[in-house]
Amino acid sequence: MDPELINDCVHCGFCLPTCPTYVLWGEEMDSPRGRIHLMKQHVEGTPLTPEMAGHFDACLGCMACVTACPSGVRYDRLIEQTRAEVERTHVRRPDDRALRALVFQLFPYPRRLRAMRLPLRLSAGLRRRIAPRLERINPSMAAMAELAPAVPARVRLPRRVEARGRRRATVGMLTGCVQGEFFPQVNAATARVLALEGCEVVIPPSQGCCGALSLHSGLQGQAERFARRTIAAFERAGVDTVVVNAAGCGSTMKEYAEILEGDWADRARAIRTVDLTEYLVELGPAAERHPLPLTVAYHDACHLAHAQGIRSQPRQLLTAIPDLELREISESSICCGSAGTYNLFQPEAARELGDRKAERVLATGADLLVSANPGCTMQITSAIRRRGAGALPVAHIAQVLDASLRGLPEVP
């Protein structure tokens, strides 16, 4: 934990109303200001107690406080450093250790996730029936069962997608772990949109996990290994711009130069990471937008809005589609409760936040919810289903753009 970063906090309290856990519980130690106070105590010699670790674990890492802070406090760096310290020194309960080992030996590995596709597809109905029983036995396992999406047929992407019309750029594309295995249709739509806008798209077959889940959970060594492998994959592909369609992945890749050292930090700086919406607005439209008669509610993913500062670009792309009406969600800056692995490790708090978000999404009366992150999609879909309010379709912004550019009558 960096004492200089800790001392940047002047304890003004502007972060309090933006912090999801403070909004839920009103506890000072479950606010950014309170957690920074605990960090300061530890740096000054107080041992890391289970109670302190619990307050750090309860943080979603949503970075809403970073947006709100008038003093520029780098809470994002502080919580990453603190979580690494927690993982180094705090002895967790055996059941907690087992759950974390399961998650981090499964989710960052696409091939292992792929092995789950068939069981998940066959057992979707069963999982929802047994979720209430699991809730009484193990809330984290119940959350995992409830969150798992209906898995579509696998989509095989080529290594290279040619630009349509005049080639305006050549870019790499990150496929991701959860996105690639559970939402392959989003990656396919992303590649088509980029190609229709004049980009040659290079998709390295061996890119693997970017390290986002590991970094945000304090597993610094694992995150660095994944980061180095990702950089090397795109270097071999010969691209210096990588387009990302998952908010958490894009946020982490933009931090590579900060988390790596020496030559690897320099190599990270040589590759530019951009979110899909950020890149498309910067590139400017080339292909015709066809009408989509839809009312759409757009959900701000925390690692897009707060960590990357990308808010206007998705809205600009959506409102440029003829006949599409954009509706805002109240409390848009409050996290949905997904936060990478948070909804598995802190299922009760995540459920409260998911239910709160679902209520506000449904209040828009929109035909479609648009998201920019697979974790948010699963979290909000699960919360809407829990309310028994009927299914509200959820799509990635790439799918909406893809439907408009191809002149489809609706978002598939």
Automatic annotation (TrEMBL):
UniProt key word Plastid: no
Keywords: 4Fe-4S, Electron transport, Iron, Iron-sulfur, Metal-binding, Repeat, Transport
Cofactor note: Binds 2 [4Fe-4S] clusters.
The enzyme's E.C. designation: 1.1.99.14
4Fe-4S ferredoxin-type domain mapped to chain residues: 1-29, 50-81
Pfam families membership: CCG, Fer4_8
Superkingdom, natural source: Bacteria
Molecular function terms, GO-annotated: 4 iron, 4 sulfur cluster binding; glycolate dehydrogenase activity; metal ion binding
Cofactor (UniProt): [4Fe-4S] cluster
UniProt KW Transferase keyword: no
InterPro entries: 4Fe4S_Fe-S-bd (IPR017896), 4Fe4S_Fe_S_CS (IPR017900), Cys_rich_dom (IPR004017), Glc_ox_4Fe-4S (IPR012257), Helical_ferredxn (IPR009051)
Enzyme class: oxidoreductase
Substrates-to-products reaction catalysed: (R)-lactate + A = pyruvate + AH2; glycolate + A = glyoxylate + AH2
PANTHER family per UniProt: GLYCOLATE OXIDASE IRON-SULFUR SUBUNIT
Its job: Component of a complex that catalyzes the oxidation of glycolate to glyoxylate.
Protein name: Glycolate oxidase iron-sulfur subunit
Taxonomic placement: Bacteria, Bacillati, Actinomycetota, Actinomycetes, Streptosporangiales
